[in-house]
Design brief:
With 187 residues, this protein is mainly α. It has one domain. It has eight helices and no strands. It is extended and about 80 Å long. The protein starts with a helix and ends in a 10-residue tail after the last helix. 5% of the residues are buried.
Length: 187
Amino acid sequence: MLAKLLAAPELINTKLGKIMHGSGKLIMRKCIRMVHGHYKPVLEYKKENGWIKDHVAAQQEAWDFIVNLYRHPINKHAGGWPEGGDDGNKIMFEGALGVFWLMQDEDSAYDIPWLLYMKWIHEHWDRFEQSAEHAYQIMNFPNMYRDMIEWSKPLPLDDGKDFDDDIDYVAAEKKLIGDKNGMGNKS
């Protein structure tokens, strides 16, 4: 019922709608935090000692990749998260994903449908990109992803040389302006 109310167009930009939206997020985050807290010791054990299934480990690596992208200072414009601090959305995502990874790692009844789901998404990825671009109409999703990756790469190492030390700058200037005697004359 709350979800239906939150989606009602007549409530979206009203004071009541904003209160319900904030309350809905708060309730969802608290529920996820409670469930995550219940499984936290098992999750910590799995993270330290390894997952049973490598594709679950790969999902955790993918999440760590996203966190690093969002924590990179240059990606702040994309809703980045503070370095060393925790964002409410990051906590919520990590809590939900951690519980889900644990379920996948321990029970194929959860694992197989999820793998099929991800495979289907992979095969239809163009629809997701097009939909994201249409929904936001302010960004090109493939370019945004490419740019976030590119901006997050470290700068090249400095070789310590700013210029070639063997350049004869006086001769180069003379050649450039055609000065034969160094006095500005062409004689």
